[in-house]
Design goal:
mainly alpha, two-stranded antiparallel ribbon, about 75% helix
Length: about 190
């Protein structure tokens, strides 16, 4: 149940569109995710990029169902060999390598932020939007770090797969909440 009428109208505007329009939104979302993947700082074993920002924004703007579906479509593109992952990487082998846990976490992150946005944790409430995105980043780090611990051991996973991303996750959450706030202000200005 959506508790914020402006959020309901913003989300409903995507979710209530015809199927062809929603397919276009999914494709646009995968392009946005791919573009965010190219903005990176190469670290080993996991690079820093803007993917989590894109995933949380897609979830918050598209809602939990369409957001998760969009991220899954992007992952399918990657598995099929399209250069949409970090730095233009592609291929199914990424789904068993060091970054697999993060990749598999992304649809859950989009679903979580979308579900929370549908309940008012959105641009109309920037603090809640920030918390939603921070939770999404935390889920990504926990699941990604757990898989990485299997691959390289718990201590190295914590050192190289979680700690370097904590500050960035908070900064991306703040940026995402700011972008959602700006979008909600823009929508409310247009509706007046």
């Amino acid at each position: 149940m959506v508790t914020d009428k402006s959020v309901a109208s913003a989300l409903g505007s995507i979710q209530d569109k015809p199927l062809l329009w929603q397919v276009g939104a999914v494709l646009a979302g995968t392009v946005f995710l791919a573009a965010a993947s190219y903005v990176e700082v190469p670290l080993v074993p996991v690079p820093v990029n803007m993917q989590t920002l894109a995933v949380t924004l897609i979830g918050a703007v598209y809602g939990w169902r369409l957001g998760a579906l969009t991220v899954i479509a992007w992952l399918v593109e990657a598995a099929l060999g399209m250069p949409v992952l970090s730095g233009g990487a592609a291929g199914a082998h990424h789904f068993v390598g060091p970054t697999a846990g993060y990749l598999f976490a992304f649809p859950l992150v989009a679903a979580l932020t979308g579900w929370l946005a549908e309940r008012g944790w959105s641009g109309q409430r920037p603090v809640l939007a920030f918390l939603s995105m921070a939770l999404g980043n935390a889920v990504c780090l926990v699941l990604g770090g757990m898989w990485l611990a299997v691959v390289i051991g718990p201590e190295d996973a914590w050192t190289f797969g979680v700690v370097p991303f904590l500050a960035g996750g908070l900064l991306k959450s703040a940026l995402g909440a700011s972008l959602l706030y700006a979008l909600s202000r823009r929508k409310s200005t247009k509706s007046q």
